[in-house]
Amino acid sequence: NAGVTQTPKFRVLKTGQSMTLLCAQDMNHEYMYWYRQDPGMGLRLIHYSVGEGTTAKGEVPDGYNVSRLKKQNFLLGLESAAPSQTSVYFCASSYGAGSVYGYTFGSGTRLTVV
Amino acid sequence: KQEVTQIPAALSVPEGENLVLNCSFTDSAIYNLQWFRQDPGKGLTSLLLIQSSQREQTSGRLNASLDKSSGRSTLYIAASQPGDSATYLCAVNIDKLIFGTGTRLQVFP
Predict the structure, then answer these.
(1) Contact across the interface for B95 and A97, Cβ inside 8 Å
(2) What distance in Å separates the CA atoms of residue B81 and residue B105, rounded to the nearest whole number?
(3) Mind telling me how many Å the CA of B108 is from chain A's nearest CA?
(4) Testing the interface with A: which of B96, B98, B103 to mutate, by most A Cβ within 10 A?
(5) B24 class by beta-carbon count within 10 Å (0-12 exposed, 13-18 middle, 19+ buried)
(6) Which pLDDT score is estimated for A101?
(7) Using one digit for the tens of pLDDT, what is the confidence trace for A1-50?
């Protein structure tokens, strides 16, 4: 039972390069989320999806794009990386809205932009 | 706008102490509240989930309470152990999770 899997786990990018972070879940969850975690800032929501083919902006969406072409996958793209995007990125998933549903998190991707 | 605050930001206690971590939120319209544990350099592990209609949840030495009307939750850890050392995060679910900045706990032998 893999849960939520993030790839890659570590990456170093040069300013201006692009990359895609992949999140995959095997729990048939409808909702998926991308967060970033920075020291002193806590976890902040970048983008999220409430179902296949849907995406929405979170608190800090600028500089990122997302796609949810398959229910089990949620991709986070950086088109032109900036040092301010150095962070740890977490993906999460949930069955949906409602009081009984909790969130499951992946183990994170540590990204450094130099 | 929903805001979540955790107090204290850091806590250092000797092994065996009972301790309370606090979480407050500004809007009571939540689906549930979830407590997580995060070890250095690792991901988030869910500890307890309290539904909006519930008052508390227990798991082993952990007990979490929820008072929606006052916008407060507490995480009680009984008989703390060095293995409990980690950062504890609370998050409220409003169709997405809004996190506090965490309490960094150190339990020394």
Answers:
(1) yes
(2) 11
(3) 24
(4) B96
(5) middle
(6) 86
(7) 679 999 999 999 999 999 999 999 999 999 999 999 998 888 999 999 99
Structure tokens at B48: 């307890």
Which phi and psi (to 5°) does residue A77 adopt? Answer: -115, 140
Taking CB atoms and an 8 Å cutoff, what residues of chain A touch B66? none
User: How far does CA B102 lie from the centroid of its chain?
Assistant: 8
Distance CA A96, CA B4 (A): 21
CB contact under 8 A, A42 and B31: no
Interface of A with B (CB under 8 A): 33, 35, 40-45, 48, 58, 90, 92, 97-108
Core vs surface per residue A74-111: b (16+ CB within 10 A) or e: bbbebeebeeebbbbbbbbbbeeeebebbbbbbebbeb
CA atoms B85, B7, A35, A73: torsion sign: positive
Q: What phi and psi values does residue A48 have, to the nearest 5 degrees?
A: -150, 170
Residue of B89, B97, B101, B104 best to disrupt the A interface, most CBs of A under 10 A: B97
Instruction: Compute the distance between CA of residue B11 and CA of residue B46 in angstroms, rounded to an integer.
Output: 20
Amino acid symbol at A112: T
d(CA A69, CA A71): 7
Residue B97 confidence (pLDDT): 92
